[in-house]
Design brief:
This protein is an alpha/beta fold. The chain is built from 16 helices and 21 strands. The structure holds flavin-adenine dinucleotide. Flavin-adenine dinucleotide binds next to helix 1 and helix 16.
């Protein structure tokens, strides 16, 4: 009889786990609390429009990478996939002047240098290191701790230029990085995308991923991709149980240790299994589904030290606009200061989804804005009662709308709020720790969290999900599912190459 693997959570990590479990010859059943699987890689409809929640870029769209192979196995993308071609990372505007980080690095270099010749050296250093960072790939063949000398040599060759990036940008954060540029627009632009406390190399790697053509947006967006993955899982024979929240993990004594024996749903149903894999947020897992005694020391440290291990989320709003709105892609601009959560901000961004005509009725487009929120902002949103929460959201969405119109006056009278949501939304929908939609921010001087995916004192139990490795995101979620299955294969003495 086939071994039964039960997976908790049907986000990208849970689906990946299920697909790789089936590929390895196991039975796989996913239990997802929501009516739809997909977790944070989601989209929803409002007033005849589609709001895309996730993919700004999908790392692993270059067919030469191992990660592409993982996405292909999952049914997410393949050789026929079409991508949106925005040609740029984003545009920043300050005091009416605009600059763009193009995917064409030479074009970026020339435009930035012509605009701010005083920053020539810093621009050259930046562009050179983005070029180096193109070699950065996410290891997707097997978990790092299962790699041998040969794997490390291969990885070292592949990422030959990454040590140079880490040497120059691995010990400074975004705030320090912005100060490398004298010109106010350049300095602002460099810090427009990531939180100030992120290590600067993260930004270079993000830009390099796009510039290398390894971070594109599949046509149809997040929901369409999620649905392709669900289809693959079902076609392979996987069981997907939706509206099936898990209440706890069954544990039993197994000699001197414990073992996971199955799960209990909130309706009392008991599902026994040979192996249990959690693909839910670890902040929710430990203390809710599993006793805190199983919490590994490195997570304990991270959850206790918010300054070294901060997280971020967003206050977001989606608007309907006329499709002749001129701004393309993502644009960040200065605005009248506004207090959202515990912090005041004076920069905001809009992303124009006009590139996806299927997201809006003819002649219309969706414009989304996202204001970064950190742990203290989450505490603010949580402190509001239901009434105050709804009122605050509506009021702030109105304030954002005013600021968008102030920046783009042609939108006056031609913009309508579709929906707005907060870090609390992600907590409610996905049980996301502090409403975060990536894992812990990698701060300077802090050891990155990298979990082994198994617990010392609980057998037959494995971890998947974006929280097993910083900085999280879709690629980590995807490979974590594969890795969890490889750990079981290794334990059984079977080949781990799947
Ligand atoms: C606005 C936004 C933009 C983003 N942009 C990008 C991007 O451009 N590129 C990128 O790589 N990443 C991006 N991300 C991050 C990406 O969406 C996440 O990293 C990824 O989807 C996480 O997948 P996961 O499976 O690890 O976790 P989740 O998606 O959180 O999945 C966990 C699942 O477990 C379920 N669950 C929770 N508790 C239970 C329970 N008790 N019982 C059963 N099920 C349960 C949840 O409902 C959920 O479906 C973005 C995220 C957001 C929100």
């Amino acid at each position: 009889m086939k071994k039964k693997i039960v997976i908790i959570g049907g986000g990208i990590a849970g689906l990946s786990t299920g697909i790789y479990a089936l590929k390895a010859g196991y039975d796989a059943a996913i239990y997802e609390k929501n009516a739809l699987a997909g977790g944070e890689c989601m989209g929803w409809n409002r007033k005849g429009y589609h709001i895309d929640n996730c993919i700004h870029w999908l790392t692993g769209t270059d067919p030469k990478t191992d990660l592409w192979q993982v996405w292909k196995t999952m049914g997410a993308i393949d050789e026929q996939t079409e991508y949106v071609d925005e040609g740029k990372f984003y545009t920043s505007i300050l005091n009416g002047q605009a600059l763009t980080l193009w995917n064409d690095l030479e074009r970026t270099r020339q435009e930035l240098t012509a605009f701010a010749p005083e920053d020539k050296d810093a621009i050259d250093l930046f562009i050179q290191h983005v070029e180096y960072a193109k070699t950065c790939v996410i290891p997707a063949k097997k978990p790092l701790d299962m790699m041998g000398i040969r794997d490390y040599i291969e990885m070292g060759k592949e990422m030959a230029d990454m040590p140079k990036v880490m040497k120059t940008f691995g010990k400074i954060n975004m705030e320090d990085f912005g100060k490398m540029f004298k010109n106010p627009l350049l300095s602002t632009m460099m810090t427009d995308y990531l939180c100030y406390n992120y290590t600067a190399y993260s930004f270079l790697v993000s830009y390099a991923t796009m510039a290398a053509g390894n971070g594109k947006i599949p046509v149809g967006g997040s929901l369409a991709m999620t649905n392709r993955i669900i289809k693959r899982f079902r076609e392979m024979g996987g069981e997907l149980h939706v509206n099936a929240p898990v209440e706890r993990i069954l544990t039993e004594k197994a000699g001197r240790s414990d073992r996971a024996a199955g799960i209990v749903l909130t309706d009392g149903t008991v599902v026994r299994a040979d192996e249990v894999i959690s693909a839910v947020d670890t902040g929710f897992l430990f203390g809710k589904l599993l006793d805190k005694k199983y919490l590994p020391a490195q997570y304990q440290k991270a959850y206790a030290d918010q300054k070294s291990y901060p997280t971020f989320s967003g206050f977001q709003a989606a608007f309907a606009v006329d499709s002749d709105f001129a701004g393309e892609g993502t644009i960040v601009f200065d605005c009248e200061p506004l207090q959202i959560g515990s912090n005041s901000f004076s920069r905001m961004s809009v992303k124009n989804f006009a590139y996806e005509p299927s997201f809006a009725p003819e002649g219309k487009a969706v414009l989304q804005t996202n204001v970064t929120q950190q742990d203290e902002d989450f505490a603010f949103w949580k402190s509001l009662d239901e009434h105050a929460y709804a009122q605050t959201k509506e009021r702030l969405a109105g304030e954002l709308e005013k600021r968008i119109v102030a920046q783009f006056p042609s939108l006056a009278g031609r913009i309508e709020l579709l929906d707005c949501w907060t870090p609390r939304t992600y907590e409610r929908y996905c049980n996301a720790y502090h409403g975060a939609y990536m894992s812990f921010i990698t701060t300077k001087g802090t050891k990155q969290l990298r979990a082994k995916g198994e617990l010392k004192n609980l057998k037959n139990f494995y971890l998947a999900g974006q929280w097993i490795m910083c900085p999280g995101g879709l690629p980590i979620a995807a490979v974590s599912g594969k890795f969890a299955i490889q750990r079981i294969l290794k334990r059984e003495g079977r080949p781990v190459e799947i």
